[in-house]
Amino acid sequence: MKNQANRAKIEKNIEPSIVFVETEHPVTNEKRGKDVAKLLYESMINNMQIGLYIWRLEKIDGSTTFRFIAANPVTKRFGRPLTKGMLGKTIEETFPPLNREVKKIGEEVIRSRRARYLGEFCYQEGRSRESFFSVNAFPLPNNCIGLTIEDITERKQMEKKMRQSEEEYRNASQKLSSLMRSSATMLHTTDLRERLRTVAEAVREQGWTRVVISLRDEDLNTTDLVTAGLSQKEEQYLTGHQAPGDLWRKRLSSMFERFRLGEFYYLPWTDPLVRKQFKYALRSKVPKKETVDWNPDDLLFVPLRLPDGQVVGIMSVDDPKDGRRPTRESLAPLELFVHQAAVAIENARLIRQVKEYAQHLEEKVEERTKDLRKSEEKIRGIFAASPDAIVATDLNGNIVECNEQALKMHGYSSKQDLIGQSVLNLIAEKDHEKAIENMKRTFDEGQIKNIEYAFVAGNGREFPVELSSSIVLDASYNPLGLVAITKDITERKRMEQQLFKSERLAAIGELAGMVGHDLRNPLTGIAGAAYYLNTKYGQVLDKRAKEMLNIIGKDIEYSNKIINDLLEYSKEVRLEQTKTTPGAMINDAIARVGIPRSITLVDLTGKEPRINVDVDRMKRAFVNVIKNAIDAMPQGGTLTIASKRSNSNVQFTFTDTGTGIPKDVAQKIFTPLFTTKAKGMGFGLAICKRNIEAHGGHIKVQSEVGKGTTFTITIPINHKPEQNEKLWINLPESLTATSSIQNRCR
Fold first, then answer.
1. pLDDT class for 558, splitting at 50, 70, 90?
2. Burial readout 203-235 (b: 16 or more C-beta within 10 A, e: otherwise)
3. Per-residue model confidence (pLDDT) at position 721
4. How buried is 596 (Cβ within 10 angstroms: 0-12 exposed, 13-18 middle, 19+ buried)?
């Protein structure tokens, strides 16, 4: 009867507050109102962001089960809202996902009085949505256990997105690697049709089912046709329905200019002009329902152009394996490849022509001489028009020929400045040994590709390059020297470094936000517990116990600062700008810090000019710099703070006479998570830098070890964010709740 009465009370109070475990002496509302500590505990449980379920161990017919006793309101998020009908139900009836694990270790938790981690679980909501949560079990009185459930769905989703991004990156890398391997394979053979087949198969590996390459003469008439992915019947159909050269000349002029994607032409079949011009085009057999947004009747082709603009062929591709329409970005790697393919095809065609002429040497000497002269002119044209630097050397490594791009790359005005020099003069001294070794490799292997060097210009400037070289043979296949093609990769290296840095900072910001939120809840619990102890037992505690509570309060304050730094760095803040003066902000910052007696302060800031800034954020930046200056002068010294107007900006300088900062440390001090202090997370100067940059300003540091350091902060006098400029927004008050609780515990 007593248990039934207690269960009735539980059902009455099930919404919206936590219901405590049944006891032999029910707690009345009157008594609960007198018990302040218990009310505080109940309020904390009801408002905590982690779900809490309470179950009671029971033995039924020799088997163990757990019956539902109570839960807090947060559990509504986990698909099991509080209802009166749940009271007294077993865990099999109310929460099947945890049935096995709770039964497995529930009795052990109650017996050992130790908490246990159950693991991560997935809960299916409907057909598509999945929720994930982390569960811990801990013992309670009266043969009860509590389950804390934390929603980790967002983290799981982020992990899934990260895996997808990694998969996309791997796919892109594989495609680029495939193109590079195909380029090498293509250059290994001089047979024209072999090169064409290599090109076609390389394009198919990029995700296209059918590829057609038609070689063109100077009048754009078809001279040869190579396909990949087509049946013999389809290839015969294409051979008999090749458009004449004058029609292709019109197609490549302005007729389809509006359909260009870089060098490619993407022609939708829905356009009447496309249907008219390509009425004999080979139709796709892929059903439209098997594609995503690609229309099987659409056409995609690209002219194979030499650097001088001459079209040596037309390549068309069809039926993407992923069923998606191409974009300019997705076609970019292929576009680079077709430029190389065009030159390789033209070279192979020239080589084939030379071989054909060689077979008729005795019969057509005069004709062969003319053609060889033309071929030489073409090769020279390609040599001169190459966007990369090309240098030819003799067997001793002395330069015998170079193109204009080589002169520009090294800062020379005439070929005579380079010809006759050792090729090592173009390479930085630190890479000489590497260059000599690779020259030997070239003579042994015939060619090497994509070797990175540090080159040096005529003025001594070093820059990174990527070099490929091959051996030059005479008619008897004896080596004459080397030819090297060099590409300046300065911009590529800079972009790679910038991308790496951006991704790293983005990851740090994302991690900071996650860690900050995860730490806030336990810190709130610690602060509440300290407040309870101070309130309940403060009058009877001895001096040592009070010191311990004071230490807890200070550590809570320090931990709260770390959490606030993490959250501030991970979130955007909108500037709340007001008019003020440099001197006013510096005075407030100095008052907030408190200057030790051992430090002599020289304040040279003034009342002009009036500036429009977010005063609080700028003061926080100044406080951070001043604290660092004080920390740098443990034995005392002088701190000089000055301000002056510089055009439309105001410049603040903070100069100390402290220990100074080593050069390698100074380069990293604005990097998140970098710190040289025993205590600290390394977010102070990083946040300082972000606040200043949000105003359109910048901060820099100059330091000399043993003499001191100067921080210079420059901000616009009247910064007005543009409409599309990214702003920083304020933290919600809920994120600072920890601070207010902690203050009450001090």
1. low
2. bbebbbbbbbbbbbeeebebeeebbbbbeeebe
3. 64
4. exposed
Distance CA 442, CA 392 (A): 13
Crossing angle of helices 192-204/153-188, nearest 10°? 170
Closest CA to 211 of 233, 245, 235, 192: 235
**What does the alpha-carbon distance between residue 114 and residue 185 come to, in Å, rounded to a whole number?**
65
CB 180 within 8 A of CB 337: no
> Which of 735, 741, 742 has the alpha carbon at shortest distance from 520?
735
| C-beta atoms surrounding 490 within 10 Å | 12
Torsion of CA 326, 330, 333, 339, to 10 degrees: 30
Number of Cβ within a 10 Å radius of residue 441: 14
**Alpha-carbon gap, residue 317 to 200, rounded angstroms:** 9
Give the C-alpha separation, 410 to 404, whole Å: 10
Q: 313-343 b/e with 16+ CB inside 10 Å = b?
A: bbbbbbbbeeeebbeeebbeebeebbbebbb
d(CA 540, CA 80): 44
| Helix, strand, coil % in the chain, rounded to nearest 5 | 50, 25, 30
Nearby residues of 377 by Cβ (< 8 Å), 6 or more positions away: none
What are the pLDDT digits (tens) for 599-643? 888 888 888 888 988 888 888 888 888 888 888 888 889 999 999
Question: What pLDDT score was predicted for residue 729?
Answer: 34
Exposed/middle/buried for 111, CB within 10 Å: 0-12, 13-18, 19+?
exposed
3-state secondary structure 415-481: HHHCCCCEHHHHECHHHHHHHHHHHHHHHHHCEEEEEEEEEECCCCCEEEEEEEEEEEECCCCCEEE
**pLDDT reading at 7 higher than 50:** no
Structure tokens at 662: 């080593």
Q: Which two tokens stand for residue 136?
A: 């811990």
Residues with Cβ within 8 Å of residue 356, at least 6 apart in sequence: none
Residue pair 235/282 in contact (Cβ under 8 Å)? The answer is: no
Q: What pLDDT score does 712 carry?
A: 92
The token pair at 430 is: 């630190």
pLDDT computed for residue 378 by the predictor: 74
DSSP letter, residue 27: P
Give the residue from 445, 432, 428 showing the smallest Cα distance to 397: 432
* Alpha-carbon gap, residue 298 to 497, rounded angstroms: 39
